[in-house]
Amino acid sequence: MRKLIGFFFMLFSICATAQKTKPSFVASVQGGLLEGEAGSAFQLKAVNGFQRQSWSAGIGVGVDYYHTRSLPLFLDLRKSFGKGEKTPFVYANGGYHFPWLKTGEQEWNDVDVKGGMYMDAGIGYAFPAFKNTKLFFSAGYSQKNYSRVSNYPVYIDIFPQPPMSKTISDYKLRRFSIQTGLRF
User: Fold this and answer.
1) Is 82 left (phi over 0), alpha (psi -120 to 50) or beta?
2) Which residues form the domain of 126?
3) 7: helix, strand or coil
4) Is the pTM of this model over 0.85?
5) Which helix (H) or strand (E) holds 2?
6) 147 in a domain, yes or no?
7) What is the CATH number of the domain that holds 92?
8) What is the pLDDT of residues 122-143, one digit of tens each?
9) How far is it, in rounded angstroms, from Cα 17 to Cα 21?
10) Taking the CA of residue 111 as centre, how many other CA atoms within 13 Å lie in the half-sphere pointing to its CB?
11) Which of 92, 44, 33, 41 has its CA nearest to residue 71?
């Protein structure tokens, strides 16, 4: 994780020193659909950062409802191509996600969930929507990893009670992502 964060900051600083203009503040809000082996789900994200010419980098947070609800915290790196108002771009997000279990998921057993890696990368197209605001559409690949430890009681009428049954599950949730949003 530290290597990923260091890579993003190094790449942004190289791009920032190679160009002559001052960086400007940018923010984006976006929503999208995730489709994968575990079904379909919705996600929301917000990113705040800085842009210098065609490069931007920022920190983002979101809500991801795919398979298990979670809160991703990530670094966002984006590169636009072209000088006009309408521009294609590529993006890469990487970070950590924090599972956020619903109360029904913890009702009958003792569950311990640990978050893991979160990543999202793809291509998109942005065009002007309002003054100083762009509307964008993007498509890409997304993945989140996490592990779940469930403890189930064993009901046997003896003393002392036997230990709880323990189940460990590791998940790598790969999904296709389609998003739209506004960039300010």
Assistant:
1) left
2) 2-11+24-183
3) helix
4) no
5) helix 2-18
6) yes
7) 2.40.160.20
8) 999 999 988 889 999 999 999 9
9) 9
10) 19
11) 44
